[in-house]
Amino acid sequence: MTITVSGGSGKSVRRGRALNDPRLRSVVYQIIILAVVVGVGWFLISTMLQNRAASGIAVGYDFLYGPANIRLSDDSLISYAPSDNWIRALEVGVLNTLVVSVLGIVLATILGTVIGIARLSGNWLVAKLAAIYVDVLRNIPLPIQLLLWIGLIRFAPPPRDAIVLLPDVFISNKGLRVPAVQSDPIFLWVGIAALVGLVAAWGIDRWAKARQAATGQVFPSFRVGLAVFLALPVAVWLMGGAPVVLELPELGRFDFTGGWTRSPEFAAVLIGLSVYTAAFIAEIVRGGILAVSHGQTEAARALGLHSGITLRKIILPQALRTILPPLTSQYLNLTKNSSLSVFVGYFDLVLVGNTMGNQTGRWVEAISIYMAIYLTISLAISIGMNAYNRRMALRER
Q: From CA 260, how far away is CA 170, in angstroms rounded?
């Protein structure tokens, strides 16, 4: 018996097979999704351009070269005047964001590590206080904590009745005032010498570890590296004539003048970010320590090692491999949470950008600028922490 298939039915069979091909379907679906995304994006951009043209608002970033005409806080790391352009104002905002983020990461790491270890303490009171710290601070929104800290700092006495911590170091409701070292050309070379000393200390540490692995002999790499790191810049400073000219704070009619200042807003943001993020880091540290086998602690006790040495030399180095990935997320969260500085009026990147958008009407450009900057900072943190995580990871033989 002969079976004949018509040409039309053969084409339909091939078409059905093509539609059932998962690879072809995935390509078709991706093309459709891409077309929808491009279409929606084009519609939004064209609508925005039409509305801005109808409102007489220009498009572009040329406004960045115009004068900002805004007053920023006095605690910026670089000089700034209202007559400077928006680029200079953004530089101040970026530096303020970086300063509060870097200091916040350092303080939150130290405090979180201490609280995390305290949660595992055999002392009932210490463990409970650490648990209360974590449970309370993790469950109060960060903006409310920032408003609380700025309110407490504002209760400090006025400048005329400022608290004298040390000679020429004052705390008031206007912030912290300390003597400032006037700049000198030799300071650039001191900074370069410090970087060279840091690289030398890192090299000494690597050499000491390789030597210990090969011979078993321990070398005091930390003390030697620290001595090199401190000695090089001090030697350059001494060779440059050891210039030290201090600008001391002086009480004026309403506030201090001169010296170096940190505003109450800066203190509120730094404290708020640090104590809030430390609560999360504490749980990460606690989980990392618990992930290490208890047999490690028992072996250390059998060797007669003190509990402090056991924690520093045996437990924490092994727990670090578990701690690092979630710790990276907390560092990123702290950096991005610094944008909440607007709640207390600290002139970080977002507040400068919002002010720029209000005054120029270029909101899309302003938001795109600080989105790109935050993306760059976050990617830099991720790349650095991932590189360190790979270095600390166990390597199979």
A: 11
